[in-house]
Amino acid sequence: MNIKSIPVLDDFAPLPPCLRRKFIAAFLLSLSLTARAAPPPAKVDLTEVPLEELMYNFQVQSVYGASKHEQKLSEAPSSVTIVDGEEIDLYGHRNFAEVLESVRSLYVSNDRNYSYLGVRGFNRPGDYSSRILVLVNGHRVNENVLDSVLIGYEFPLDIDLIQRVEVIRGPSSSIYGNNAFFGVINVITKDAQALDGIKISSSYGSFDAVNTRLTYGKTFKNDLRVVVSGSYYNSPGPHSLYYPEYNTPTNQVHGGITNDTDYERYYKAFTSVFYHDFTIEASLSSRKKGIPTGSYGTIFNDRAAETTDRFAWVDVKYDHDFGDGWHVLGRASYDAYNYDGNYPLLSDTGTRFIYSDYAYGKALSSELQVTKRLFDRHTFTIGTEFKDNLKQDQGNRDNAPVPSAPYSDHRTTRNNGIYGQAEISVFKNLLVNAGIRWDHFGSFGNTTNPRVAVIYNPSETTTVKALYGRAFKAPNAYELYYSGPNNKGNRMLKPETISTYELVLEQALSKRLTFLTSVFSYEIKDLINQTLDNADGLLIYQNSDRVTAKGAEVELNGRIGGNVRGRISYTYQHTEDEMTHQDLSNSPRHLAKASVSIPLLKDKLFSSFEVLYTSRAGTLAGQYAPGHCLANLTIFSRNILSHTDASISLYNLFDTTYRYPGAGEHLQDTIEQDGRTFRAKVTVRF
Amino acid sequence: MMRRLVGMWSLRILFAIGVVIGISAPLSAETAELPEYQLKALFIFNFAKFITWPPDTFEAPDAPIIIAVLGEDPFGPALQQTLLGKSVQGHPIQIIHLASGEPVSSCHILFVARSEKDRLISTLEQVAGRAILTVGDFDRFAHRGGMINLFIEGKAIRFEINANATEKAGFKVSSKLGGLGVIVRGDVVKGSVP
């Protein structure tokens, strides 16, 4: 359903010239003063470091996702950011979207129904996040009807189980196939050793939001490792929200006030069993959200408007090192996804009825990958993936006084892919990483996607990477087949393709501080767009658009002043739609982020804050959601009492008004987000 | 109910926070990240530091101490780069590589690579009774007769010491090492040659 959006007058006073440049300059200045205050660290002879320090103050560094095997950060053929699970505690992140929001190149928007992820300027209103692939321990989480990933509280995994997140930018279809368009995000969960024992966690936050979690981890004598976790969240949401669009002379509903419709609740369960080379994982989640915005022309202030998303999967993995450089990975998994939406509508005769739509996906997948390391310098990988979409069902029905005929579409399709990658150490300081993948999709046919990266170390502390890659996003079941009263499917759709060039420079300023800068340029062809067929007045998806983008990024991360850790980054991203020659909607040109954590008491008390700046973003009506700066502050204590961690967090510290662009289904051109909120959390270990 | 937009006073607070970072004294120790095998090389250096070889093992107080890597070398350049030119207990460090299945020549520390997992017993039989400290980093290395096993816990390196094997070979393990590692009462592999 499509509602033409009307321009909205911003009811709030016009902004003074945004202080963003002054604020960032002031912050950078104070940071640079700090860097000069601490003397540059002397070149440390590591053999002089005492053994206790090696055990307690040193950790192993590695990244898994970029080439699908353990790899040093600087050798990965991509620009990678690693978010440590500890940061989720330090910065008080409440959901996966808040975790991703703090990462360079990423930005988030929210319409009070779902959260959406933007990468390098791309986050069109109305799109679902299907141009990024999210994995949990290597298992594809994008569902098989819309190929999308849900990143807010609706993300299937409880974020307290996260050991680390690897954000791998750039086209990765040469390894991962579909949806690895702008990048891949690999989430690695905590293992039994890290979770040893029982943990009970409870939190209370604004709008009476309550979250409870029970996690159990154990390593048995025969090396059997088990993790089991379950959590529950319930937030009634703000008691009232005001939307001026529903308080006009021509459209008056309840004075524009909606009560108790922004509710959210979920339950999530996860288990992982590891024994010798086998790992079995299962996940179950269900999340229900009330829709307060009156989207899709639903009756405003009606509590029946809600969506429910459920995910379930079982994944069995075999991972074995055969010695002599041979490594084999095998995986088989079963995934199920269910979406249900209920929308209260008014019939022509003024009778209230419920329109519901649904999607139901089931798939069986398998994967086999073989890696060989040669002469300890080169690595070769080949792999194959097979996916049987047992069900890709969509449909709708209603109980109107004169009900429409229920619609349902059933599909089963099969996809398979085969890929290869070679990492060749040409010289000791020159690495070439080249890969290619061929995919066959039951729906559209074949696609081949290459990637090549040259990684050069002019010195021990400097890395230069030059990358080129192509990736694709297959048309999903909704775009291909969904036909309703207003739309029709398009079997002729081809996949979208993106070609990306990127140049990255990474410089280790000291053992603890890294500076990074990159420039990128991408072109998207055959972008799938919803268009109107004038012949029959139906909406249809076409490969009708082209988008180009250029950008540059800078980041500084690590530790300074001895014990302060953090990340500060700036991204300039400029997208252009080749049809309109304008910036894409919801494509802010500037992103600036700073996350800093300062210990107040050695190993026990931390104060961490984040400042996130997003410049103005275009809306569908041709207006702008103004640029905004958000600040979050968390005080976190580890072992405040024995075996107890506690934290208190304030989000949107300065109670800033900020808004995200709405999509076609919203009367609102922009949707206002929450003001200052808080959360107090306690975790007890047994 | 108009809500405040970011103003000058918040700018000042952020600046103040920046200053607080500047004057915060170094308190807690930082956690640094190193590649896995560079870290393990440092552990091996520390084992050599805190273990006493049986008397008469070394020909002279400044005779070289030889670290041999048997099998597919996981260190890459890390062992050489980290330990080259260093001495431990007065003995300059020398590093040699032994191919899979090659007989173990004269050395003082033998690192047994994962590739030798299935040949572990025959390898340990070769070095039994020869005052060679055996170190490995795979599952059950210490339980099956190796002397020190390196393993990863979370993201940190830990080690297990097979006290039976070190005692049988005549090594004296400093209480410092014994206190930091996990003591395991593993097997003792007897020599194949009497």
Roughly how many Å apart are the termini of chain B? Answer: 91 Å
Helix content of chain B: 25-40%
**Portion in beta strands of chain B:** 15-25%
Kindly state the number of beta strands of chain B: 11
Query: How many domains make up the coordinates of chain A?
Result: 1
Query: Which descriptor suits the 3D outline of chain B?
Result: globular
Low-pLDDT runs of chain A: 1-43
What structural category arises from helix and sheet content of chain B? Answer: alpha/beta
Low-confidence stretches of chain B: 1-29
Chain-averaged pLDDT of chain B:
80
Q: What's the CATH class label of chain A?
A: Mainly Beta
- Tally the helices of chain A: 6
- Shape type of chain A: globular
Taking the sheet with the most strands of chain A, its summary is: 22 strands, antiparallel, barrel
Gross CATH architecture of chain B: 3-Layer(aba) Sandwich
Largest sheet of chain B at a glance?
8 strands, mixed
Distance between the termini of chain A: 52 Å
How would you describe this protein?
The complex is a heterodimer of chains A (686) and B (194). Chain A has 686 residues and is mostly beta strands. Chain A has a single domain, classed as Maltoporin, Chain A (Beta Barrel), CATH 2.40.170.20. In chain A, the strands form 7 sheets. Chain A has a 22-stranded antiparallel beta barrel. A 5-stranded mixed beta sheet of chain A has the order 2-7-8-5-6. A two-stranded antiparallel ribbon of chain A has the order 3-4. In chain A, strand 35 and strand 36 form a beta hairpin. Chain B has a single domain, classed as Response regulator (Rossmann fold, 3-Layer(aba) Sandwich). Chain B has helices spanning 8-23, 36-50, 78-83, 120-127, 163-168, 175-180; strands at 32-34, 51-52, 65-70, 87-88, 91-98, 109-112, 133-136, 148-153, 156-162, 172-173, 182-184. Chain B is globular. The model of chain B is unreliable at 1-29 (pLDDT under 50). The interface between A and B is large, with 70 and 65 residues. Strand 1 of chain A pairs parallel with strand 1 of chain B.
